[in-house]
């Protein structure tokens, strides 16, 4: 019995950690939504793309080498250098700023004032585009990403808890790092959005593009800035997830894990992303744990419920929403006539 | 009230512009007007005459509504404005107060005002001082400074929108229907403020207004727009005396103001163009 | 003082009936803001009742209470003398109360005709299946109601824009379309929230004519919020004045014109 | 003056209420119908049926369904894939449980079942709005897929968890199974599409359509003028579910023949159909057709150009396809955010004025 | 010409696995064309069609390529195979689902046009258990199956259950939904229940994450066995050092130490005709693609012999496949000595011998090594299952068993 409790606690803790990883992706969504009302479906692909770029720079890969080789009959793959992680990250950030500029200059500038669903569709187009470019640029094979983050069970926690409870808890080192990074990001971003002039302008833009334009806020500037920051957040998420599972296409699918987090936390709330992430992480892990381990579930339904993680988060978020339609921390939906 | 323009220097010049929405709907069919420095110019006309469109054509907000200037030009201080970013224009001192308030709903009243100072670089102190000035002009919104603008009443939002524009320390303000939905004494008050900033700070004002009566009392010069064309212009005092203006825009007949009850059965339509 | 059910005849020969709607001690709060403080007034059948007051006084909120969109914390609404249970807004509309909005609330993606036709929705009863098949009842009903709508469209002189999407119309015409949508439902009570804001005198004259004609021809009771004192004084039978949630005056236009509290709070100067 | 309107007077409201009030349009419509029913079945071959016509017909039905919900009623749904799965599985269970009933009725019944499920998932829309609702509908998407994958009753306990359409006949001609003829499957789907389009058109031009659009454009105002939001929204979910269910059933039974739910009816499908209505035009029946045609043809054309014409290696083509599809979507949205239908309308407006603009 | 459609996937979540296989499949035919002028003098043409490992797109690919004279389909997905079985049978085209697809298709009496030699998923399951039994007694031990929650992953469940009854081990089923990016709960469950062995039927990112998570909870890699689709370089590289010792089943050889690779280098790579980026040669999945191509080419040769025509059609190809015989000599002559088992296909048996071997990952050397012989699986148990399942299919679809 006690045993079961410990298991549950372990699952709980790991759920928290998984939640942080979801939140990292959700943060990027929130930023862009807050600043422009754009529901950026491409956030996941941005994480993939930034991670690909990071690995590419680190390994000195020649971008577009495959096409170059195919058209010119050359045989180049690598520059033959290795860039230290820190510089490579810096380089990737520059690429993401460039990306932000392109996105703004060639896409969203032309879509100012359109309905949200149109903007949403444009980001899906962007997601396809970026995925294709990423593949062409860096190839679609799996890449190992190692920026020196620790990974695997944390022995200290394992031992300490073993001595205390007679059961060693499993916590992944990478998750601990992710948590620290996420907390720092959230604090930074909250301060930025709530108290800086640019942050205020960003929220203004989200409320009413036209009015923001009319008071002299440059949409271009704000959006490039926000997309750059979102690109940076995507990079952070990309590093964490890429370290876990290698850098490859599936990284872009983590966007789907971030959506329920967003719903729960509220599309416009930075702290909401974290809290939502934690609730979702814990919720889905515990649910899976109880359902797959309890005989009860088996008796009830005649089959055990398992592999619930793809939908549980959504259903949980849905239930929350019914009570709070704007998410836990989202901006109030102003209903007036 | 001054009826002659205080200076002859042309600050803002609109030259024979045509505006098309959505590539098909022709709205302005050649509008020209001048605004002298330090003047108050009123743009009058019925619904759909093209006042808002003219103002947006000047401030560059047309683009975000799929509108295009297809002919003519707009220049400010002699420089052509074609292709200029609205933000750029605000930095050079032209700000528009949009029709229908357009407050930032999810920002507080005070934050709304502060966004007005977005382009200013003269320090927190000056901005704080101006904030107080705006609160002096509009005590009502001082009471509501902490509440979300989305929850304030229509009139309060109008004050916020005005205040927000003043926060940018503009040289020229394009005012679109400032009196719409305001209580009578507030209308006067707003126009007093307009006059005050015009006189004290030398702010130039281009004003689109339906409330012809008040507008012509405060403006120096007026243009009357109908279906996308300027049909009449002249110093405000002259316009006030013009019999057609009197009848159609001021609601006066020879016997003075007529009651709204009396218009029911008879109506005479006259248009300069149709 | 008149009794609630008594009717009388005005100077210009219209009959004003008994009280149809009575607001009793309404209090409405939003968090800390008290939008309406303990206000009572009534509306009589066939009259034009104006509600005036400074910005933020709570006028629109009052209409929203009548529409069932806001639920007052205290007080009740009496309809035809009986306390009205808490109804959803669409149920209120079904009782024959139609309205227009301060910030035009038209359906921007639809044509003028479709907008006006929505006003008839409570008069049409054919079900989903009948409409899917169309021929027969649904079609007949559609045509009958279309005739009513066209009548109102003619009446308000907006025939030429019938098929135009509303989003392309200038402000003033939108207001007129909104009025058409409200009128076409043949309401017993019509609530108008600043119908003449943003109009010039000529347009206001037009609007006044429509309002008076409706009141005359259909005997529709009208509650009207308006900031143009000229309009209010000329059109209304009785005026209620609100100031920051409180009622500070109630009476005929001439009473109000000379009410010192009203002059201080709202009019600024005594209006001619 | 290509496009004439002048001289085409209407003397009654019935005339003015027609689907195609302008004579020219009406004739074009009859011609299209005649070709679709009378000519294409004789020209059709396997390749064209499978690569283009069948998916086009079936997706058009789905697009009409989603357009009613999203384009007309303003409720963005990302659950289309899941709802199509409901149609498919309902059809499968019905086909295997009542083998003697004609498949035509199975498909209709599958639409009915989907309508019910869709309505149930529409309940949260009474409180949840906008993108929150869109994301919430993903709950339906993922949950339904999981359910069909998990509960073996749905796939008749087959080991692989897939469902296979048994052979069924209409007038003695097989329309499902491995031995179908292109013209038969084509006509079968075409009949459903035609009926769906007519029903959708009737619903959207009358009061029901107005209620939906009112909710879409401004739900609060709609409620205040008398639209019961619950009934309006749920009826949109139901009608939309009905069409989507039919398309799911046809997709499974007629087009694919066998289905693995997670892949065929995954979230990609939801996006695809949403794309169709946005590129085609929200709130337009014609747009549903146009969008479906566009997105069904696009990959075929891209492949033709890339692989067969330019002879590029497939992987580069595959990646370029993503780039091109993505770019095309964006270019399209920028050029005309309101879709092909709007493009068409503007073209008509210009033609009407041509050659004398203004 | 001889048309070989290749339903590949070079984009999407499974691209990392799809690319090397498709490269190997294409390169081998390119090599044959360049070196021998085709097969029996007729040029081979590979028609690639992108499926993205999506069943629906797979069907589209099938429909759009079958008109080009396709001889045999290699769908590279169990889901797509299931879909194509009835269609291809009706069209008289053969399917070769090598090491995947519907296991009971091994019964040629029912599935006339489907071949899944030389080994199938049930052989794999049995092979894994056999291997474990060779390491020690398995009764009373706990075995967990981590599987891709799709038609593919569900294939071995029945066999493993039967085997568990037979050998007395406990079986725990742990499904992972597509794509499998997040498997925390699954691996916490494993950590909790401490199974002695874990068998994995995974594909795509699910493999990498599983290996990584196994390393994270310090599950002994020695006791972690993947099916052959969970045993490529892709799956273990991201986990680095910690993946050392991980095992995977296979039905063919590893490495590029075979003469045929010299020919590939000479006629394909150096000529600049390598498929894809040309950097996959010698990897596990490349080899498998190459092996599949080789088997197809040999079947063509057999068909050419039987029918005496060089430019064969789909029906003749089917006959060739059914009469295919692979011997050690043949393999050696093809430059692939000892690469795969020798076997003979027959009308009754489309499944080949079902010999499976075991490979292990050496993280330091970054290579897979074969650590066991190709040994038989428990056909006594499997054959009845095959018969049962295929006969059920025959009954359902009113197929008259032939042969
Ligand atoms: N975004 C738009 N798309 C299409 N037509 C438009 C658009 N905005 C305005 N119009 C049209 O342009 C004309 C002029 O409108 P504008 O708003 O400039 O008039 P206005 O003089 O400001 O009127 P009001 O006093 O009612 O505000 C109107 O006929 C209107 O229908
Ligand atoms: N939904 C709401 N939430 C919070 N506060 C509200 C809400 N609706 C109205 N208020 C507040 O209630 C007060 C009365 O608002 P109301 O809109 O009724 O004013 P009004 O008399 O119509 O003014 P105006 O003439 O400016 O339209 C205002 O201070 C407003 O900010
Ligand atoms: C390469 C693929 C055939 C393997 C895959 N997991 C399947 O069986 O579907
Ligand atoms: Mg205007
Ligand atoms: Mg109001």
UniProtKB/TrEMBL annotation, chain A:
Membrane-topology descriptor: Multi-pass membrane protein
Keyword Cell membrane in annotation: yes
Name of encoding gene: livH_6
Localization per Swiss-Prot or TrEMBL: Cell membrane
Keywords: Amino-acid transport, Cell membrane, Membrane, Transmembrane, Transmembrane helix, Transport
Protein name (Swiss-Prot/TrEMBL): High-affinity branched-chain amino acid transport system permease protein LivH
Similarity field: Belongs to the binding-protein-dependent transport system permease family. LivHM subfamily.
Organism expressing this protein natively: Planktotalea frisia
GO biological process annotation, one example: amino acid transport
TrEMBL record, chain B:
GO biological process: L-amino acid transport
SUPFAM superfamilies with a match to the protein in the record: P-loop containing nucleoside triphosphate hydrolases
SMART domains per record: AAA (SM00382)
Gene3D superfamilies: P-loop containing nucleotide triphosphate hydrolases (3.40.50.300)
Keyword annotations: Amino-acid transport, ATP-binding, Nucleotide-binding, Transport
ABC transporter domain location: 12-252
Residues annotated as signal peptide: none
GO MF annotation terms: ATP binding; ATP hydrolysis activity; branched-chain amino acid transmembrane transporter activity
Pfam families recorded: ABC_tran (PF00005)
Family in the record: Belongs to the ABC transporter superfamily.
PANTHER family listed in its UniProt record: ABC TRANSPORTER SUBSTRATE-BINDING PROTEIN (PTHR43820:SF8), HIGH-AFFINITY BRANCHED-CHAIN AMINO ACID TRANSPORT ATP-BINDING PROTEIN LIVF (PTHR43820)
Protein name: High-affinity branched-chain amino acid transport ATP-binding protein LivF
Naturally occurring in which organism (per UniProt): Planktotalea frisia
Gene name in the database record: livF_5
Automatic annotation (TrEMBL), chain C:
Keywords annotated in UniProt: ATP-binding, Hydrolase, Nucleotide-binding, Transport
GO molecular function terms attached to this record: ATP binding; ATP hydrolysis activity
EC code: 3.6.3.25
UniProt cross-references to InterPro entries, sorted A to Z: AAA+_ATPase (IPR003593), ABC_AA/LPS_Transport (IPR051120), ABC_transporter-like_ATP-bd (IPR003439), BCA_ABC_TP_C (IPR032823), P-loop_NTPase (IPR027417)
Alphabetical list of Gene3D superfamilies matching this protein: P-loop containing nucleotide triphosphate hydrolases (3.40.50.300)
UniProt feature coiled coil, ranges: none
Ribonucleoprotein found in the keyword field: no
EC category: hydrolase
GO annotations of cellular component type: plasma membrane
Annotated ABC transporter domain residues: 21-269
Entry superkingdom: Bacteria
Pfam families named in the record: ABC_tran, BCA_ABC_TP_C
The name this protein goes by in its record: Sulfate/thiosulfate import ATP-binding protein CysA
Gene: cysA
Automatic annotation (TrEMBL), chain D:
Swiss-Prot/TrEMBL keywords: Cell membrane, Membrane, Transmembrane, Transmembrane helix
Keyword match Transmembrane: yes
InterPro entries membership: ABC_transp_permease, LivM-like
GO cellular component assignments: plasma membrane
Transmembrane segments: 27-44, 50-69, 76-95, 101-123, 130-148, 183-203, 234-259, 271-304, 316-335
Keyword Transmembrane helix listed: yes
GO terms for MF: branched-chain amino acid transmembrane transporter activity
Compartments it resides in: Cell membrane
Membrane topology: Multi-pass membrane protein
A Pfam family matched in the record: BPD_transp_2
Descriptive protein name: Leucine/isoleucine/valine transporter permease subunit
Species of provenance: Planktotalea frisia
């Amino acid at each position: 019995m006690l045993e079961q409790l410990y298991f549950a606690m372990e699952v709980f803790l790991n759920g928290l950690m998984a939640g942080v990883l979801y939140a990292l992706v959700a943060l990027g969504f929130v930023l862009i939504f807050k600043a422009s009302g754009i529901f950026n479906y491409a956030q996941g692909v941005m994480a993939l793309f930034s991670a690909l770029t990071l690995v590419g720079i680190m390994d000195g890969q020649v971008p577009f080498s495959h096409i170059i080789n195919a058209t010119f009959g050359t045989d180049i793959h690598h520059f033959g250098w290795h860039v230290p992680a820190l510089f490579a990250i810096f380089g990737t950030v520059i690429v993401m700023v460039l990306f932000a500029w392109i996105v703004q200059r060639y896409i969203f500038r032309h879509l100012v004032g359109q309905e949200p669903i149109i903007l949403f569709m444009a980001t899906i187009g962007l997601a396809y585009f970026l995925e294709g470019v990423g593949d062409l640029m860096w190839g679609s094979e799996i890449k190992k990403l190692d920026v020196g983050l620790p990974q695997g069970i944390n022995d200290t926690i394992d031992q300490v808890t073993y001595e205390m409870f007679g059961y060693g808890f499993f916590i992944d080192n990478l998750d601990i790092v992710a948590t620290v990074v996420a907390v720092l990001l959230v604090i930074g971003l909250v301060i930025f959005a709530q108290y800086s002039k640019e942050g205020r302008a960003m929220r203004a833009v989200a409320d009413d593009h036209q009015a923001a334009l009319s008071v002299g806020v440059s949409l271009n500037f704000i959006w490039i800035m926000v997309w750059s920051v979102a690109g940076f957040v995507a990079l952070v998420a990309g590093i964490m997830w890429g370290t876990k599972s290698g850098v490859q296409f599936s990284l872009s699918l983590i966007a789907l894990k971030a959506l329920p987090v967003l719903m729960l936390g509220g599309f416009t709330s930075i702290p909401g992303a974290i809290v939502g992430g934690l609730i979702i992480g814990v919720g889905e892990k515990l649910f899976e744990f109880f359902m797959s381990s309890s005989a009860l579930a088996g008796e009830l339904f005649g089959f055990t419920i398992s592999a619930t993680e793809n939908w549980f988060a959504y259903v949980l978020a849905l239930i929350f929403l019914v009570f709070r339609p704007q998410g836990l921390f989202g901006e109030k939906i102003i209903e007036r006539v | 009230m001054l009826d002659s323009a205080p200076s002859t220097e042309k600050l803002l010049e609109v030259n024979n512009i045509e505006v098309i929405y959505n590539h098909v709907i022709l709205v302005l069919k050649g509008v020209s007007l001048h605004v002298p420095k330090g003047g108050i110019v009123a743009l009058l006309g019925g619904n759909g005459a093209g006042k808002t469109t003219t103002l947006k054509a000047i401030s560059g907000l047309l683009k975000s509504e799929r509108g295009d200037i297809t002919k003519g030009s707009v220049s400010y201080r002699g420089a052509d404005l074609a292709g200029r970013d609205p933000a750029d224009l605000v930095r050079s001192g032209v700000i528009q107060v949009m029709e229908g308030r357009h407050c930032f709903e999810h920002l507080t009243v005070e934050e709304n005002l502060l966004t007005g100072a977005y382009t200013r670089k003269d320090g927190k102190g000056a901005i704080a001082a101006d904030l107080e000035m705006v609160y002096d002009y509009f005590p009502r919104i001082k009471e509501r400074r902490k509440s979300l603008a989305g929850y304030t009443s229509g009139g309060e939002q109008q004050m916020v929108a005005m205040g927000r524009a003043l926060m940018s320390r503009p040289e020229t303000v394009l005012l679109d229907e400032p009196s719409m939905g305001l209580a009578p004494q507030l209308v006067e008050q707003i126009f007093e403020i307009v006059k005050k900033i015009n006189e004290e700070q030398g702010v130039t004002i281009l004003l689109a207004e339906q409330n012809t009566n008040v507008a012509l009392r405060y403006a120096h010069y007026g243009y009357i727009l109908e279906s996308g064309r300027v049909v009449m212009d002249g110093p405000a005092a002259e316009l006030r005396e013009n019999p057609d203006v009197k009848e159609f825009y001021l609601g006066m007949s020879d016997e003075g103001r007529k009651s709204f009850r009396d218009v029911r059965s008879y109506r005479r339509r006259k248009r300069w163009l149709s | 003082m008149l009794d609630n059910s008594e009717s009388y005849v005005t100077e210009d020969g219209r009959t004003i009936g008994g009280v149809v709607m009575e607001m009793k001690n309404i209090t409405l709060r939003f968090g800390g803001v008290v939008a309406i403080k303990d206000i009572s007034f009534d509306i009589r059948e066939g009259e034009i009742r104006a509600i005036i007051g400074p910005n933020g006084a709570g006028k629109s909120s009052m209409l929203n209470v009548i529409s069932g969109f806001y639920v007052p914390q205290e007080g009740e609404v009496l309809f035809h003398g009986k306390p009205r249970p808490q109804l959803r807004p669409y149920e209120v509309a079904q009782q024959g109360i139609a309205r227009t909005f301060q910030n035009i609330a038209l359906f921007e993606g639809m044509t003028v005709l479709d907008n006006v036709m929505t006003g008839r929705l409570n008069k049409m009863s054919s079900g989903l299946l009948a409409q899917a098949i169309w021929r027969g009842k649904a079609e007949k009903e559609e045509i009958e109601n279309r005739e009513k709508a066209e009548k109102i469209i003619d009446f308000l002189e907006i025939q030429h824009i019938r098929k135009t999407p509303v989003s392309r119309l200038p402000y003033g015409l939108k207001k007129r379309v909104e009025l058409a949508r409200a009128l076409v439902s043949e309401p017993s009570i019509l609530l108008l929230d600043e119908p003449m804001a943003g109009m010039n005198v000529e347009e206001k004259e037009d609007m006044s004519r429509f309002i008076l004609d409706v009141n005359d021809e259909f005997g529709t009771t009208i509650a009207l919020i308006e900031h143009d004192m000229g309009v209010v004084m000329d059109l209304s039978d009785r005026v209620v004045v609100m100031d920051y949630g409180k009622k500070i005056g109630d009476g005929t236009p001439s009473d109000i014109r000379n009410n010192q509290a009203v002059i201080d709070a709202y009019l600024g100067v005594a209006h001619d | 003056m290509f496009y004439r309107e002048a001289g085409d007077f209407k003397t009654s409201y019935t005339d003015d209420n027609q689907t195609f009030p302008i004579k020219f349009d009406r004739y074009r419509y009859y011609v299209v119908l005649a070709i679709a029913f009378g000519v294409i079945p004789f020209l059709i071959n396997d390749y064209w049926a499978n690569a283009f016509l069948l998916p086009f017909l079936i997706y058009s039905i789905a697009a009409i369904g989603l357009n009613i919900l999203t384009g007309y009623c303003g409720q963005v749904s990302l659950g289309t894939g899941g709802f199509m799965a409901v149609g498919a599985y309902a059809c499968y269970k019905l086909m295997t449980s009542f083998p003697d009933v004609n498949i035509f009725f199975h498909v209709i019944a599958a639409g009915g079942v989907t309508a019910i499920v869709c309505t149930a998932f529409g309940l949260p829309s009474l409180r949840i709005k906008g993108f929150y609702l869109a994301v919430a509908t993903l709950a339906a998407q993922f949950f339904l897929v999981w359910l069909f994958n998990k509960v073996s009753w749905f796939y008749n306990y087959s080991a692989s968890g897939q469902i296979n359409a048994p052979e069924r006949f209409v007038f003695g001609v097989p329309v499902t199974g491995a031995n179908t003829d292109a013209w038969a499957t084509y006509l079968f789907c075409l009949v459903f599409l035609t009926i769906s389009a007519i029903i959708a058109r009737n619903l959207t031009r009358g009061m029901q359509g107005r209620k939906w659009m009112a909710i879409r454009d401004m739900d609060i105002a709609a409620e205040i003028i008398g639209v019961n939001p619950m009934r309006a929204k749920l009826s949109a979910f139901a009608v939309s579910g009905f069409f989507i269910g039919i398309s799911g059933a046809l997709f499974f039974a007629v087009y694919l023949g066998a289905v693995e739910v997670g892949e065929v009816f995954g979230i990609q499908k939801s996006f695809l159909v949403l794309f169709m209505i946005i590129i085609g035009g929200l709130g337009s029946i014609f747009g549903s057709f146009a969008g479906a045609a566009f997105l069904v043809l696009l990959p075929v054309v891209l492949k033709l150009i890339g692989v067969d014409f330019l002879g590029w290696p497939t992987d580069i083509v595959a990646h370029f396809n993503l780039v091109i599809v993505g770019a095309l979507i964006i270019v399209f949205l920028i050029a005309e955010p309101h879709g092909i239908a709007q493009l068409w309308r503007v073209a008509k407006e210009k033609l009407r004025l041509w050659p004398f603009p203004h | 010409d001889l048309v070989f459609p290749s339903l590949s996937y070079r984009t999407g979540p499974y691209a990392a696995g799809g690319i090397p296989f498709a490269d190997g499949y294409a390169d081998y035919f390119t090599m044959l064309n360049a070196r021998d002028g085709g097969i029996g003098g007729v040029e081979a043409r590979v028609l690639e069609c992108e499926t993205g490992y999506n069943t629906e797109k797979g069907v589209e690919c099938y429909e759009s390529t079958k008109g080009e004279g396709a001889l045999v389909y290699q769908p590279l997905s169990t889901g797509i195979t299931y879909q194509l079985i009835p269609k291809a049978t009706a069209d008289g085209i053969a399917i070769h689902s090598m090491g995947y697809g519907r296991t009971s298709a091994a019964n040629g009496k029912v599935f006339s046009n489907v071949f899944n030699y030389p080994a199938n998923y049930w052989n794999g399951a049995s092979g894994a258990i056999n291997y474990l039994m060779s390491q020690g007694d398995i009764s009373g031990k706990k075995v967990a199956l981590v599987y891709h929650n799709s038609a593919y992953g569900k294939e071995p469940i029945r066999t493993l259950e039967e085997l568990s009854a037979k050998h007395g081990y406990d079986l725990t089923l742990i499904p992972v939904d597509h794509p499998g990016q997040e498997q925390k709960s699954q691996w916490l469950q494993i950590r909790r229940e401490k199974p002695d062995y874990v068998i994995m039927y995974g594909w795509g990112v699910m493999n990498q994450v599983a290996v990584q998570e196994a390393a994270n909870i310090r599950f002994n890699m020695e006791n972690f066995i993947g099916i052959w689709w969970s045993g490529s370089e892709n799956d273990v590289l991201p986990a680095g050092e910690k993946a050392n010792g991980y095992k995977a089943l296979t039905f063919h050889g590893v490495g590029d130490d075979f003469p045929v690779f010299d020919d590939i280098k000479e006629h394909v790579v150096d000529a600049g005709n390598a498929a894809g980026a040309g950097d996959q040669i010698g990897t596990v999945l490349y080899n498998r693609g190459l092996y599949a191509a080789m088997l197809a080419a040999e079947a063509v040769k057999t068909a050419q012999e039987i029918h005496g025509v060089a430019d064969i059609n789909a029906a003749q190809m089917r006959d060739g496949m059914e009469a295919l015989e692979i011997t050690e000599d043949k393999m050696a002559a093809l430059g692939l000595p000892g690469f795969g088992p020798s076997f003979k296909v027959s009308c009754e048996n489309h499944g080949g011998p079902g010999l499976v071997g075991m490979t292990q990952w050496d993280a330091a050397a970054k290579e897979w090594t074969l650590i066991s012989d190709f040994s038989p699986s428990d056909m006594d148990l499997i054959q009845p299952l095959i018969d049962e399942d295929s006969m059920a299919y025959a009954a359902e679809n009113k197929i008259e068993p032939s042969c």
